[in-house]
Design brief:
Length: 240
């Protein structure tokens, strides 16, 4: 497995492919661009790695793999996060490409690929989705009151574990990824329910339930803050 020592400010990319030559080639390309690279040869290994080391900033996922395929891996990941994914696969089928982009992927790259183009597409996706300002540890510490374990779909409130639903976990991930910025209702609806016609009442209901689980006082929220008529904001990390 390729891996660099993680350092603050370095974005981590997970590559999932059962071909060791692809793993090495893509890994070297992205390491030269300054990214931290971790790799997995199967969907099952990728999930185990995420639970052990924390979420990456971006994943490149092959579709055809023994055992859990790329779609199944994305479905599993999306049960607890909204991790940006680029499909990197030899499948050049229009229906598969459309399904990938509709349901899971920020981009779709077919093999064989040009290393410079791959690096450019990775940069483009990371610029568009933004970085995750909190440290992506297995358990993410917000402050002394709140920690979040996304792979296990749990919030730790004053050392007490609270289970999150897939939708609550995904919404919290989106808000934390955009910490310090207002996330619009429209964006949250599209990301939380990408293949459904969802409306603001549904979003507000899930936000209400999330607040009841993680806020010291849900009536005066300090984490999921309403921007009336626009969306919600999660506080930026305090690095002082």
């Amino acid at each position: 497995m390729l891996s660099n020592q993680h350092s603050i400010g370095v974005q981590k990319i997970l590559i999932v492919d059962d071909n060791p030559y692809i793993l090495r080639g893509v890994g070297l390309t992205l390491e030269k661009e300054g990214y931290e690279v971790v790799t997995a040869v199967s969907g099952e290994e990728a999930l185990a790695l995420i639970k052990k080391t924390g979420l990456p900033h971006l994943a490149l996922v092959d579709l055809n793999m023994p055992g859990m395929d790329g779609f199944e891996l994305c479905e599993a990941i999306f049960q607890f996060s909204d991790l940006p994914v680029i499909m990197l696969t030899a499948i050049d089928d229009e229906q598969t490409i459309v399904e990938s982009l509709d349901r899971y992927a920020e981009d779709y790259i077919t093999k064989p690929f040009r290393p410079a183009e791959l690096a450019a597409r990775v940069r483009r996706v990371l610029r568009r989705v933004g970085s995750f300002n909190y440290t992506l540890d297995p358990v993410i510490t917000v402050d002394n009151y709140l920690q979040v374990d996304f792979p296990e779909r749990k919030a730790i409130i004053n050392r007490q574990e609270v289970n999150l639903t897939p939708t609550e976990s995904r919404l919290l991930y989106i808000l934390m990824r955009n910490a310090g910025r207002t996330v619009t209702n429209h964006f949250l609806l599209n990301r939380a329910w990408p293949t459904e016609d969802a409306y603001e009442d549904r979003l507000h209901t899930h936000i209400y339930r999330l607040r009841r689980k993680i806020e010291p006082n849900p009536k005066e929220p300090k984490y999921v803050i309403s921007q009336w008529g626009t969306g919600y904001t999660f506080p930026a990390p305090n690095h002082s």
